[in-house]
Every structure is written in structure tokens, then in C-alpha cells.
Recover the amino acids of this structure.
């Protein structure tokens, strides 16, 4: 990913916070003819000082067959973004777009059956915790759950490269920066409000 120095973020704690909040990601690999992609929730895990990403694909999805333990794949995280009007500056400028994007690269490894079972239970417990009447893995007959698992393929990768771009008007004066924030905060668009919040948080660091 092209990242001007001004927009580059290397604070791993901040990057992990972002991918945890916006974890519905794009998994990109190559099938020897063209790039292929799937959109799925991705979980992260820290093992000592190493960062791992985990997910699962439908077994019917041929992308998992492109996963080569010797070849890196790309997982792209992106959520908040907003149009920035040149009318918000005190000088003539062109339109642009503010956004946050994180790319992570690593070599995938497929889960064993036991690892996949544990991962699915982890995801279920995580997301059901926010439901009014949560269903626990223990509430599902184990043999039935195991049969369902035959329809998916789990994987993890150790992150070897992180590229994070926070394009948040860092090149603007304090006055114009605040003007952008003010206009974004007035917007009814949730993305605009998220970018305004990200810009304010940027100033705190």
C-alpha cells in the first residue's frame, strides 16, 4: 500500500485496536490466474510478541485451496472513511477522501479439526455475548456442530508485515484541520462522524 510518511502509523497497539474494532476484513490471495478475495470476520491473537490472525472460509469457497504455506496472503482492514470538501478550507484546494486502512501479510496455515472446533466456539461465545438471549456452544449438540464444521475451513497466519495508513488531514493547518472536524461532526453520516473522532484522537497523541 502506498503510504506517505505523514500518514504512516507504526503504533502496534493503535493498529490492533483498529483491527479489533473493524474486524470484518478482506482476505486476498492469488489463484495463479488472478487475485481472489473473500470478506469475513478476522480475529487476532498475541502469542508472546507475535501477532496472529485467524478466520474461516466456506469449504465450497475455492479460495482456501490457494493458501500456500510458502506464499503470503493479504488481509485488508478498512472501515471509517469520508469525503472531504475543498469548501471546508480557507484556501483553494481539490476534493479528497479521509480514511484509515490497515494491510497485514502472512503465510497461512490451515487449522486441524480440533483447532477449528475451538475457534468456532471462541467466535460464537464472543459474538453471542452481545445478544439478548445468547446461544452457547454447549447448547448445540456436539455431533451436530461437528458435522456443520465439515462445511468450513479454518486458518491462521503469523503477521510478517503491517502497513497502516491513517489519512486524516495531517497535512493541513490547525485551523483547516479543525474546520474539517467540525464539518464531519455535523454530518448525519456515521462514517463522517467516525473520521471526525479518529482525527480528534490523532491530536491527542
Amino acid at each position: 500500500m502506498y503510504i506517505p510518511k505523514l500518514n504512516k502509523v507504526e503504533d502496534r497497539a493503535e493498529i490492533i485496536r483498529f483491527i479489533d474494532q473493524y474486524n470484518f476484513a478482506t482476505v486476498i490471495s492469488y489463484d495463479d490466474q488472478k487475485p481472489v478475495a473473500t470478506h469475513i470476520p478476522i480475529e487476532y491473537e498475541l502469542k508472546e510478541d507475535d501477532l496472529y490472525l485467524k478466520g474461516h472460509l466456506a469449504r465450497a469457497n475455492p479460495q482456501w485451496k490457494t493458501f500456500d504455506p510458502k506464499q503470503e496472503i493479504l488481509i485488508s482492514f478498512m472501515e471509517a472513511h469520508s469525503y472531504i470538501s475543498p469548501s471546508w478550507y480557507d484556501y483553494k484546494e481539490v476534493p479528497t477522501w479521509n480514511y484509515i486502512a490497515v494491510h497485514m501479510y502472512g503465510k497461512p496455515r490451515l487449522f486441524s479439526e480440533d483447532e477449528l472446533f475451538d475457534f468456532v466456539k471462541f467466535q460464537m461465545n464472543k459474538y453471542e455475548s452481545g445478544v439478548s438471549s445468547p446461544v452457547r456452544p454447549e447448547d448445540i449438540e456436539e455431533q451436530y456442530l461437528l458435522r456443520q464444521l465439515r462445511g468450513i475451513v479454518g486458518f491462521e497466519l503469523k503477521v510478517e508485515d503491517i502497513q497502516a495508513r491513517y489519512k486524516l488531514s495531517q497535512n493541513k493547518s490547525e485551523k483547516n484541520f479543525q474546520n474539517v472536524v467540525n464539518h464531519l461532526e455535523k454530518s448525519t453520516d456515521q462514517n463522517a462522524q467516525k473520521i471526525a473522532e479518529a482525527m480528534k484522537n490523532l491530536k491527542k497523541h
Summary: The mean pLDDT is 95. The two ends are 24 Å apart (CA to CA). The first helix runs from residue 12 to 21. The CA atoms of residues 120 and 199 lie 35 Å apart.
